[in-house]
Model the fold of this input.
Amino acid sequence: RKLLRLIGDMRMRVWAGFVGLGLVLLFTTLYYRLPGVVASVSLLIYVGLVLAIFKIIPVTLTLSGVAAVILSVGMAVDANILIFERMKEELRAGRTLRSSINLGFDRAWPAIRDGNVSTLITCAILYWFADRLGATIVQGFAITLAIGVLVSMFSAITITRTFLRLVATAGV
Done:
């Protein structure tokens, strides 16, 4: 009976995660239209990469680990928003789509880099202090967040940029 209840609780948690991710994807797509679709695909690839890394390492997702994953998904979305807002500024300035994509990424990169590097420094500090104090929950949070942030930087700068350039080249 306890096992069935535990399985039911796990299904609800997974379902809640999918609903949350779906709402983020829906909002991004509705607000940014085609770039939002690109960001959504990039975000799905990001989630797949993070889950694959968690499976390979292996990472046990405690409540603090889940919080770190949610935070890193938010940072991945934030990186795409920074890029798209910079692109919009360039388009309003009269630039072509291709040049606004390149300039948007170039101008968003310092903010993305600085935010992610400061988060990684915080993760290192959390991990170090947690190691000294024996707080493995905090260590798990720090490691999970660091993995998520590193993959987030990769997906925003590499995957989203590649997809946007493909869309611009295709003339969609």
In short: Helices lie at 2-32, 34-56, 63-92, 97-133, 136-170.
